[in-house]
Amino acid sequence: MKMGYLDCFSGISGDMCLGALVDVGVPLEAIREALGTLPLHGYALSAREVRRCGMRATQVKVELEHSHHHPHRGLSDVLAIIEGGSLPDRVVADGSAVFRALAEAEALVHGTHPDKVHFHEVGAVDAICDIVGTAVGLHELGLDALTFSTVSLGGGTVKAAHGVLPVPAPATAELLKGLPAKGGPVGFEPAPPTGAA
């Protein structure tokens, strides 16, 4: 069994996952090509080497075209996008499962049904690229399983579409319920719901 391990000492986010995958050898072009098969437009992926606390890392960014209209999308819209590409079955299954978990957590904290959750505008494109791109990268590495350390959640507050929320965001707390997580060590949100999902 080939297993991957994520050390989440400084949180976890979609772009952190993509950066880690590219850093261990997944070609950015493979992720670009896979995402390019989706019926999704108005974005570009870029990667660059950065330094964080004196350590070298790869940062992958989803850059959005501001002139491009990014509609609100519900779970069924996002699943149709994922299923509408030419992706391996495992990537479709993994990406869809992550979005279902995200929608279920958001629905629970907002008192609605997963089918009524909307992934807001820019976040929807960014989240699709992060989540499906990560599924592509894990598939490229041929991993059978993925495990992770205790997730650092941060603290303070964060501005969201629904107003100012505590950190961890309620959806993050729901997604990580029963899993190893802890507050701190910083006063911001290093583990947003997309990363937690």
Spell the H/E element sequence: EHHEEEHHEHEEEEHEH
Rounded to an integer in angstroms, the radius of gyration calculated over CA atoms is 16 Å
Strand order across the biggest sheet? 1-6
Helix share of residues? 40-55%
- State the end-to-end distance: 23 Å
Helix/strand-derived class? alpha/beta
Q: Per DSSP, what share of the residues sits in E-state strands of 2 or more residues? A: 15-25%
**Biggest β-sheet strands, sense, barrel:** 2 strands, parallel
| Unreliable runs | none
On the 0 to 100 scale, the average pLDDT is 93
Number of strands: 10
Q: Helix segment count?
A: 7
Shape descriptor: globular
Q: Topology, please?
A:
Elements: E1 3-6, H1 14-23, H2 28-36, E2 43-52, E3 55-64, E4 73-74, H3 75-83, H4 89-110, E5 118-119, H5 121-141, E6 145-148, E7 151-152, E8 157-160, E9 163-166, H6 170-175, E10 181-182, H7 193-196
Parallel strand pairs: 1-6, 7-10
Antiparallel strand pairs: 2-3, 4-5, 8-9
Helix pairs in contact: 1-5, 2-5, 3-4, 4-5
In short:
The protein has 197 residues and is an alpha/beta fold. Helices cover 41% and strands 22% of the residues. Strands 1-6 form a two-stranded parallel ribbon.
Can you describe what's shown?
The model has no long low-confidence stretch (mean pLDDT 93). The chain has a two-stranded parallel sheet with strand order 1-6. Strands 2-3 form a two-stranded antiparallel sheet. A two-stranded antiparallel sheet has the order 4-5. It has helices spanning 14-23, 28-36, 75-83, 89-110, 121-141, 170-175, 193-196; strands at residues 3-6, 43-52, 55-64, 73-74, 118-119, 145-148, 151-152, 157-160, 163-166, 181-182. The chain is an alpha/beta fold. The protein has seven helices and ten strands.
